[in-house]
Amino acid sequence: MSKTSTPARSTEPVTAVPVRYPERWIAAGVILVLAAMFVHMLVTNDAFNWPFMADHMFSEPVVRGVWITLSATVLSMVIGVVLGIVLAVMRLSGNPVLVSVSWLYTWFFRGVPRLVLAVLFGNLAILYQTVELGLPFDNYWMAWLGMEGDARFFEIDTRTALSGYTAGLLALSLSEGAYMAEIIRAGLQSVDKGQTEAAQALGMSRGRVLRRITLPQAMRVVIPPTGNETIAMLKDTALLAYVPVTIELFYQLQAIGARTYQIFPMLVAACLWYLAITSVLMVGQYFIERRFNPGQHGSIRNRIVGGAHR
Amino acid sequence: MSEQIQEGTVVEASEGTGPPVDALVVAENVHKSFGRLEVLKGIDLHVRRGEVMCIVGPSGSGKSTFLRCINHLEKLTAGRLWVNGDLMGYRQKRGRLYELRDNEIAAQRSDIGMVFQRFNLFPHLSALGNVTEAPVQVKRVPRAEATARAVELLERVGLPDKADAYPDQLSGGQQQRVAIARALAMEPSLMLFDEPTSALDPELVGEVLDVMRDLAEGGMTMVVVTHEMGFAREVGDSLVFMDDGMVVESGTPAEVLSAPRHERTQAFLSKVL
């Protein structure tokens, strides 16, 4: 051991030869060739018919379809989240009736495929010609009591009440409620028990603890999967085409394709539209996640794998 | 314990609705079981107004459980517990007990501050938000007033410049001091401390004990579960040694710490002193 080689004393910069990774270059080369083949196909294959796609992608019915898709996504998510909160709270309430109802609901709506639900709700008019509001079983007890008429206050034709859009929206949001219930339940259960105890010790009632302490903290856990759900929901609005909702984006694009025998360009247009909207939603998710992480503004990478400290 | 109760203060013995003794906290034969495990086996204690009572004992002796029974975070299995003359968690009517509703229990708790071993600050609220939350939400104190009071309290616990900091930006000692301020914001007549310094780095223990000492000097009634014998001796008016769910010995800190009568107390103290 020589004294001169102690690392603390060396002031010479390190000039070692870095490790070479030839396999990276080979992999990159292969991928580049495959990419070139793909682009070549996009340009030369006439089935894509790019000019036709560009002409029709922004036509008036398609743009209206985009708005329908967006509104269906937002509305069904809003209803789904509210339902999910109610169901999750019911599930954790300890009240056996509420727990069972919540479990049954989740079981049904998670068990039936969304496509089937969409078609089912589209055909509810077969089950009920009219939707009526009144006291239950009036046809039995009114007769017993010797009363005339009925106890129905309000009546509407099912086809009017449940237009294609409403039926589809109902199917999507009821189904979403079941998934959101599970997500929110996991979020609520992730909050430390000490939080509830601290809040209770301060004299907060159970409802207030939930609203002010537990739910806001659950949000941090709930938001990332809810972002995924929103993106999945955006894509699932394509199922509305089978209710059918004729003004919806995918229906419109397919219709144009079928009418003009330009099926493939319109399918590509559908891909591009959904990709574009999803990208916008992802940006929104980023900002919402930041909003619900006060006091933790360090980058996610730094928090998970380490990095310069605050 | 009996020597601590002032003579001639027995009140409301008639209907059995009030506590048998005029003290801020009256525990009578308190039992608590978790399933088949009996954690408290009949605790009788009185805490006078302005008294600082320290409870010591080996882990698993039921000290924390008893503390949590005082503000009804744990339901008693048997016995009665009164705070400020109120039977905790129940209403007694014609010899029968009726469970109180959630909001009634909450109202009882709002008069009792509690400080936890793991701080339990609300991580989604700033220090100021933590302190104002309960007064605004529970007592309906106007926000401006609650904020002014919270600023005062944060100053009192030595954190005037940390109002906008979030819990994860504070050290353990600072978090615990915010937690004390949070409890004080409800202007409680009793403060419970559940091993408030056990989760702290040794060099941070002092700052929390200082705040507690100030509080005791200000006349606050305190029940402190602790392992800090120095604090118990210096600040405490009384010391209770618990073991195996029972009060083994109690008296002034000087008596119990210097001349323990019971051999279990002696064994415990020889390990911690």
Strand order in the largest sheet of chain A:
1-2
Residue stretches of chain A low in confidence (pLDDT < 50, at least 5 long) are none
- Structural class determined from secondary elements of chain B: alpha/beta
- Main-sheet strand order of chain B equals 8-9-10-3-11-12
Q: What global shape of chain B is seen?
A: globular
The biggest chain-chain interface is: A-B, 23 and 35 residues
SSE diagram, text form:
The complex is a heterodimer of chains A (310) and B (273).
Chain A: H1 22-44, H2 50-57, H3 60-91, H4 96-111, H5 114-122, H6 124-127, E1 130-134, H7 138-144, E2 152-157, H8 158-161, H9 164-190, H10 193-201, H11 206-236, H12 249-260, H13 263-291, H14 300-305
Antiparallel strand pairs in A: 1-2
Chain B: E1 25-34, E2 37-47, E3 52-56, H1 63-70, E4 78-83, E5 86-87, E6 90-93, E7 96-99, H2 102-109, E8 112-115, H3 127-137, H4 143-156, H5 172-184, E9 190-194, H6 202-217, E10 222-225, H7 229-235, E11 238-243, E12 246-251, H8 253-258, H9 263-272
Parallel strand pairs in B: 3-10, 3-11, 8-9, 9-10
Antiparallel strand pairs in B: 1-2, 1-4, 4-5, 6-7, 11-12
Helix pairs in contact in B: 3-4, 3-5, 4-5, 5-6
Tell me briefly what this model is.
The complex is a heterodimer of chains A (310) and B (273). Chain A is mostly helical and 310 residues long. Chain A has helices at 22-44, 50-57, 60-91, 96-111, 114-122, 124-127, 138-144, 158-161, 164-190, 193-201, 206-236, 249-260, 263-291, 300-305; strands at residues 130-134, 152-157.
What can you tell me about this protein's structure?
The complex is a heterodimer of chains A (310) and B (273). Chain A has 310 residues and is mainly alpha-helical. Chain A has 14 helices and two strands. Helix content of chain B is 34%, strand content 25%. In chain B, the strands form three sheets. In chain B, strands 8-9-10-3-11-12 form a six-stranded mixed beta sheet, sandwiched between helices. In chain B, α6 links the parallel β9 and β10. In chain B, α3 runs parallel beside α5 and α5 runs parallel beside α6. The N terminus of chain B is likely disordered. At the A-B interface, α10 and α11 of A face α2, β8, α3 and α5 of B.
